[in-house]
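User: Structure with 4'-deoxy-4'-aminopyridoxal-5'-phosphate, tokens only please.
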Amino acid sequence: MEYIYFEGKIVPEDQAKISVKTNSLHYGTAIFEGIRAYYDKESDKMWGLFFREHYERLFKNMKVLNMEIEESIDDLIDITKELILINNIKSDIYIRPLVYFSDLKIRPKLVGYSAKITIYTYPLGDYIDINNGIKAIVSSWTRLNDNMIPPRLKVAGAYVNSAFSKTEAILAGADEAIVLNKNGYVSEGSAENIFIVRDGKLITPPVSDDILEGITRNAIITIAKDLGYEVEERHIARTELYVADEVFFCGTGAQVSPVVEIDHRKIGDGKPGKITKEIQSVYFDAVRGKIEKYSDWVVPIE
Ligand code: PMP
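Assistant:
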């Protein structure tokens, strides 16, 4: 039986239930996070990745939705560690905190309701392929913008947009979608940030291009700069994707995932790129606590 954090306690899964009347279920007004913890065979330890950064983002997101919960960021980090220990996990996992308005009331609004948090874990290996490279399409769906449903938020309702684009990609025989923003520039994948490589330089859309402020994106920028690459944050036009030497997605779930084809055009030589693989290899060592310089990205679960 798996244990879940629910209504202030760690309980067996069958006790973590909400009513069909729960307000956020109807209006998508829930904020969530996606966090990973990795198992390292050598040290025989679980390593929590960017726990603080994820909970800090959750709190910033909650602020926008006018949500308050009883737990502090430190409480949530401790609860997450406890969940991993109590569930006796020794494998790579995904952790899903979800904050929702628990009132059993009709009406979409952000005042007069009370918020609660639940957290559960589940085993997650590679969420999308990281070895052979994936195929992507440019979606016909437009990314949301800040005055609609802010892409900065991991708000449940915004993921209808992700579901549309991801489904379009799957039905077109591809693996992932690349979504353009209202100005026609590349924003991100359905649930990943994106980088392109041109002439040895990494380029990624700025946060003002309607992207999630990705935690992995920041880590990749750090790794790339430490490896001596120039990183530019600027608009990316659609056809720059086609002529890029390399393209990759990144995210907590996606990790670092090379893209080898976009809209039926080969990217580079149609194989995962050299710089992508170099960054990927550093990333995978960092997330398992193997790189001293990045040791503050991870926390041992013990
Ligand atoms: N963009 C979107 C829309 C996402 O859902 C995610 C996954 N959280 C990302 C980017 C990557 O963000 P992070 O690196 O913080 O997981």
